[in-house]
Amino acid sequence: xxEDSLKHLSQVGKFEIEHLVRKYWxxxxxxxxxxxxxHDIADDIAQETFIRxxxxxxxxxxxxxxxxxLLKIARNATINYKRSAFFRKMVLMDYxxxxxxxxxxxxxxxxxxFADRIWELVMRLPLKQREVLLLNAHYQMSxxxxxxxxxxxxxxxxxxxxxxxxxxxxxxxxx
Amino acid sequence: xxxxxxxxxxxxxxGPFRQEPQPTAAQLQSIxxxxxxxxxxxxxxxxxxxTVLMALSIFIFVGWFIPSMEKTNRTSDPGKNxxxxxxxxxxxxxxxxxDGVFVFDNLPWLVSKQEVMQQKLLDDRASELEDALKAESRxxxxxxxxxxxxxxxxxxxxxxxxxxxxxxxxQDQFIEFCKELxxxxxxxxxxxxxxxxxxxxxxxxxxxxxxxxxxxxQDRSTLSVYLxxxxxxxxxxxxxxxxxxxxxxxxxxxxxx
Lengths: 175, 257
Fold this sequence. Notes:
Chain A is mainly α and 175 residues long. Chain A has helices at residues 14-36, 39-55, 66-92, 95-99, 105-111, 117-124, 127-138, 143-150, 154-174. The longest helix of chain A is centred in the middle third of the chain and has 27 residues, at 66-92. Chains A and B meet through helix 1, helix 2, helix 3, helix 4 and helix 6 of A and helix 1, strand 4, strand 7 and strand 8 of B.
């Protein structure tokens, strides 16, 4: 199913849903993972993103690509998740025990499984810089499109990207 | 590749993992089910149920939640049971450190939940968490709103740790808060046990895992200060300072004793 046929939910059949999910799952999942650094949460957010997307297909505007539109939904879902998770970990659970003890088993397990060492360095960047670098380098989005997605001035995107690149350059030289 | 792009840029073209993520059959099924539920024409029933639910939510919010907020605020009146009001760092630090050991909110360790409630004038609403008491308040710090939460934690109905959580919404305010806190910590407490106070100078760029400093008292009680950041609802950042005091661990028991 191509982008121009994304019209209304009632016109999307079971086959098209599966096709769209399979086509964009990787993009949505990778984005959520880089923002949260948690496998299970990326799974949940990806699923939530597609449910929200299909429920609001009529809000899709053809001026953005389906991928950008899905990333926008994924970003909002991630922010909502992190907001509630932030409260849980800060107030309802013992933040210290959960986050400041030894690295989690999950972290140890997945740290060794990045396809390229450079992804480990990307994950060390502050969230704001990591996100901009991901959108530009991995998703090949222009500064204007990133600014639109993040609802930021283009200059801010540019400076974040510059800082991210500088840091990566520096870390790569140190290796 | 654009001429401005670094050499390593193309290494990020592929995803982070060797194996590309794919939806499982269960995930696909779940998405399809959720979407189908929305497409079913149940117009009038859904609208009616939604209207009733919405009315009920408003009723609960107006009738219960708002009065409960007022009640919580009363119980957590900064003048009564919150030892700290924004700039009063000395008062805060004297409530957690005394004669070389760490305590919490001027309370001795291992007191019961009921005793803390009486002492701090907290009512049942502060007691909704099973092993904790929570009091919240809001006031201004340098002309910006500051949310403070005080949490008392219990194990077997004995006070074993406590936390002051300060939530700030502006980075400048957060940096200023950390700066002032650092000044007072350096004057009131001995040298930290883990990390150093310069951590508080890094409030402008807190990494994802946060930053922390740790002190240990003569009786092995501890005090930790954490700087944390988080992306809020609409992309705006939230900034938090968490000050946690914990009782000394009990003596180690040996199987031979």
